[in-house]
Amino acid sequence: MAQQDTDQQHAGVLPVDDEGYVVDTAECEEREAAWRGRGTSRPITVVGNPVLHKECRDVTDFGEEFQQLVADMFASQRTAEGVGLAANQIGVDLKVFVYDCPDDEGVRHTGVVCNPRIVELPAESRRLDDSNEGCLSVPTAYAPLARPDYAEVTGQDERGNPIKVRGSGYFARCLQHETDHLYGYLYIDRLSKRERKDALRQMAENEPRYPVVAND
What we know:
Elements (H helix, E strand, L loop, with lengths): L2 H8 L17 H11 L5 E2 L18 H16 L4 E3 L9 E7 L5 E11 L9 E2 L2 E4 L2 E7 L2 E2 L1 E7 L5 E7 H14 L10 H13 L6 E2 L3
Parallel strand pairs: 1-11
Antiparallel strand pairs: 2-3, 3-4, 4-9, 5-8, 6-7, 9-10
Helix pairs in contact: 2-3
């Protein structure tokens, strides 16, 4: 990594480790509560709404309006009892997601990623995990979906500083799932036709436990 990039990362919101990845496991409770306390919970947009099915716009303005959006996202995520939330899931066409998610060892990770990109890993280093996956925008539905059990994402933090985030297990799934959202993909888009139909059936047969935006 170039020296300039390293200096920029150390000026970011979160500290970074020796390899340049954000340390998102410290003071999670305090940071999440501070964001949530400034936010207003919004209803969740569900599958079928056009905003979920197209690539979002890059975040270029990190001003006060954007900071309020991030706070609202944390508040909305807590209301829906989720571990990750993308902006288009509350109807906002911007590339940003928040997360408050444990990994398979129970370590909590909390943060914000803008304009994310998944780092492509060598095929020989990938190991697939076919655990169940769900989505706040497909409420009450779950299906097994194979994803790599380790993921790295590059992007920017909520102030525009360059960051790198990495995770394993459940947290790796979260990073991939939320990045997918911002490029117009739901997890059910990665299922077979039969599995997708079953997920939509589950959604139709059950009531969500949080407010949603009904599709016309």
